[in-house]
UniProtKB/TrEMBL annotation:
Annotated Gene3D superfamilies: 2.60.40.790
Domain called SHSP: residue spans: 25-135
Family the UniProt entry places it in: Belongs to the small heat shock protein (HSP20) family.
Highest taxon of the lineage: Bacteria
Taxonomic path: Bacteria, Bacillati, Actinomycetota, Actinomycetes, Propionibacteriales
Protein name in the entry: SHSP domain-containing protein
A Pfam family assignment: HSP20
Length: 146
């Protein structure tokens, strides 16, 4: 279903950002937390994107790679930041999806800061019943009298 992509530098970047106080200012996009599970004939993925505008979210599928990008902008205007613990800037996440999912029928919704993607399982990957054909009718044999 879902092949987990690993990023060995993600935890290092997070730690460096916390220690150096540069949260949201690195060149690498910030991470968006994710949950994924299967519900019957569909695969559900949820991303946490609190404070992100629906218009800034971009979802692409190329072959079997799903890419989600979003951006949380730091406020503009005449104000002075007193604390900055939330990450601002670009968020990006790529997932490699298996061939058993129907990537042409992905549904997306965004509510209360949670992006929810529903990907149906492809028809070819669903379990199906195999009918057993009946035996061919017995051919009657006749004895030939000589």
């Amino acid at each position: 279903m879902l092949l987990r992509t690993t990023d060995p530098f993600r935890d290092f970047d997070r730690l460096a950002s916390q220690l150096l106080g540069s949260a949201g200012t690195t060149n690498r996009p910030a991470v968006m937390p994710m949950d994924a599970w299967r519900e019957g004939d569909r695969f559900v993925i949820e991303f946490d994107l609190p404070g992100v505008s629906r218009d800034s979210i971009d979802i692409d599928v190329e072959r079997n790679v799903l890419t989600v990008r979003a951006e949380r902008v730091a406020g503009n205007g005449d104000w002075q930041r007193l604390a900055s613990e939330r990450t601002h800037g670009q968020f990006s996440r790529q997932l490699v999806l298996g061939d058993n999912l129907d990537l042409t029928k992905i549904e997306a919704g965004y509510d209360n800061g949670v992006l929810r993607l529903v990907v149906p399982v492809a028809e070819k990957a669903k379990p199906r019943k195999i009918e057993i054909a009946g035996a061919t009718p017995a051919v009657e044999t006749q004895a030939i009298e000589a």
